[in-house]
Amino acid sequence: MKKTIALLPGDGVGPEVMKGAVQVLKAIEKRFGHEFNMNEMPVGGSGIDTSGTSLPDETLQMCKNSDAVLLGAVGGPRWDGHSERPEKGLLKLRSELGVYANFRPVKSNAAFQDMSPLKKEIVKDTDLLIVRELTGGIYFGEKTRVDERAEDSLVYHKYEIERTVRIAFEEARKRKKKLTSVDKANVLESSRLWRETVVELSAEYSDVETEHLLVDHAAMKLIQDPSHFDVIVTENMFGDILSDEASVLLGSIGVLPSASLREDDFGLFEPVHGSAPDIAGKDLANPAGMIMSAAMMLKYSFHMNQESEAVEKALQEAFNAGYRTGDMRTGKFQHVSCSQLIDQVVYRIEEDAVSA
Ligand code: NAD
Ligand code: IPM
Ligand code: MN
């Protein structure tokens, strides 16, 4: 199969982990006989540096002309004083591409169980999916600043809530048939609209058990009893915060991937973590979140399930063989660099091809 993929490495550790996705895709291309046409463009701080803007027109055009987009990370202290923030480019990209449903799977497995600072018996059965609304809410409302008064508005239209919640119900149907909708309906009007919409839609999904949790309660329950959850659906900012919290269940934000989707097969795929300025340029970053984002692209945008599973398997085997980056908190295993872990994953994809 021929596919065109836009590569947006971005800033900080973005380019370091992007190498992992590219090398893994090249190995998949060879093993399964596909043709991936990959083109790299700047975004975020690197867009500001090269074109004076965090989302250059050519970058956006190339993304629109591709079958899928892979993004590393944007941002960093280097652009703090600049009139435009690198993050603006990422938000504009998500909005322009209309990828409103952001899937953030959090699944524990044997390789991860000793990594979390939480007790093993609490985290071991974690298998949840956060569906985060990605193109609305407080991120995209009007922002004003007049003297000592600042304002960010949180606006949701019913259609924005409905389309994301519907996708979450569909995912729950394919999984353990449980949906937790997270809001702050005791305080926010937008959350009351959110909850009403979920209640309305739940009538169409009577085979799915639906519950509503206030976000503060959900934040507690997520680390107290993570196996309570199957699919969590929530608005943009709550989803952002809860997903970083959920990464603690696996021990590192470096391993969490994401897929941002819309109605057709197109998608934007990026790790949940940021540009990690504290470790950037040192070959220390964990490339797993980026590599798993590429695996999600193979699955969701290209329907290449076997290829996606081959990536996941190679990564797990590399972890199980003891190759772990420094963020994976455990003394037992040898710590390798970002590029060494990438090599180990690529080697396992190729080796499987030989033994198959
Ligand atoms: P961060 O996710 O970059 O880092 C948080 C912590 O996790 C740091 O200690 C970092 O070293 C560690 N970490 C992150 N990714 C890692 C990886 N792959 N391997 C090992 N350790 C990893 O969050 P932050 O420090 O709050 O933000 C830094 C910058 O990144 C900011 O400018 C922020 O806006 C941006 N950011 C971008 C994205 C994105 O592009 N999607 C996401 C989050 C944050
Ligand atoms: C994420 C990031 C972004 C967000 C930032 C960089 C704008 O934190 O993808 O989780 O808040 O959506
Ligand atoms: Mn975030």
Automatic annotation (TrEMBL):
The positions annotated for binding NAD(+) are 274-286
Isopropylmalate dehydrogenase-like domain span: 4-345
Task: Name the InterPro entries on file.
Answer: IsoCit/isopropylmalate_DH_CS, IsoPropMal-DH-like_dom, Isopropylmalate_DH
Concerning Pfam families, the annotation shows: Iso_dh
- EC number annotated for this UniProt entry: 1.1.1.85
Keyword annotations for this protein, in alphabetical order, are: Amino-acid biosynthesis, Branched-chain amino acid biosynthesis, Cytoplasm, Leucine biosynthesis, Magnesium, Manganese, Metal-binding, NAD, Oxidoreductase
Q: Name one GO molecular function term.
A: magnesium ion binding
A biological process from GO: L-leucine biosynthetic process
Residues at which substrate binds: 94, 104, 132, 216
Q: Which reaction equation describes what this protein catalyses? A: (2R,3S)-3-isopropylmalate + NAD(+) = 4-methyl-2-oxopentanoate + CO2 + NADH
This entry carries the following GO cellular component terms, namely: cytosol
* Assembly information from the UniProt record: Homodimer.
Biological role? Catalyzes the oxidation of 3-carboxy-2-hydroxy-4-methylpentanoate (3-isopropylmalate) to 3-carboxy-4-methyl-2-oxopentanoate. The product decarboxylates to 4-methyl-2 oxopentanoate.
What name appears for this protein in its UniProt entry? 3-isopropylmalate dehydrogenase
- This chain's source organism reads Fictibacillus aquaticus
- The coding gene here is leuB
